[in-house]
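Quick one, T. Sequence first:
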Amino acid sequence: MSSLDAALSEVLGTSVSGLRRLTAGASRETWSFDSDGRALVLRRDPPGVPRPVEMRREAECFRACAAAGVPIPALVAVGDGSDAVGTPYLVMERLDGETLPGRLLRDERWAAVRAGLPRQFGRVLARIHTLAVPSLELVEDPLARLRAEHEAFGEPRPALEVALRWLAEHPPSPVAPAVVHGDFRNGNLLIDDSGLAAVLDWELAHRGDPREDLGWVCARAWRFGAAGDVGGFGPREELFAGYAEVAGVEPDPDDVRWWEVYACVHWAVICRIQAERHLGGSERSMEMAVLGRRAVEAEYDALLVLGLVTRELPEVSADPPSGTERPTVDELLDAITGALVGEFEPADDRSRYLARVARTGLNVVRRELSLGPELRRRHDECLSMAGCRDDAELAAGVRDSSLDPDDEAVAAAVRSSTLSRLAVANPRYVPAAGEH
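Structure tokens:
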């Protein structure tokens, strides 16, 4: 029996079997296990990175949801890390269903429920926004907080400056604060044959503008290549209609669009925050390191929502490998990435998932080496046309309004900054024909 098995047995007072770590959760660990025949899930903070206040608030959200009829797993146990588990945690019932977006969006198994999900999401969100959880933090100025989080890294990202400037110039109409789930999206929602079976992962819950959840679930990041506006499943009109069935009023599309742009910037900042956990040494994680390179996807999405970016990446030929040493860098990377997913054959789901993450990271390295020099040369030309020496000067000019994003040379430099990095990080992220 492992130490975690023994700890769970101690706090639950039952025998524990079948403990295994799931792929879900970059910021918290998720474990599946059985306890005297009962199917359960453990969500805990990584050892060494405890967040007891947030975990307690998440437990309060579970209790409020259960009382209000919001679909959620039954809460079995809560701990602050002072017991045998050693770090803050929740134990909840394990429900049958699917959370993996790739399966939900593409497998015939889920075809019958897909079309109805946006309306169900709307109904459930309207119920969430009526919850009373007084302990949740009130976020009064989310845009100021977001900008501060972005600026804390001191890294120039011109596209985010364009989006932040647009957000400041086009504020949504004011509304009364409500409970906001904060991460309501495809991947955090358990789906079964009846549709939405449970809303998971409440660690970002707070009080604020309820339309934040509507913009978040509409963000392109959660569509995973599918065409539907709402998590890839269907149109936002269905989401709004479902919301109105419960709330009595349909959301203003322009206000939700503001929150969709906000969601793009927010996701970019979250990617960078997660990467910093690795870079700063608080939690060494290949998964978080690779996630940091995904920030540029969210930059692209922000420009796409604002109509400021094309749907094409710059065409550039890969530089031939330098020198004559064999195997070349490309050949070595081919061998390693092939082995990760084809030869090692990891036995468990999480190991297979991490092998795919490793392959993704190595492919970024490959493109950085082969495409990077030419992409940087072309971007330098765009910067020069805008009168800027580098991205830092471009970003600062957009931020202090000395540069106008409506000026074509400035806009071209902003696009170049994002598209050249996207060509390295994930060239397949550009929408296919028919995708929004």
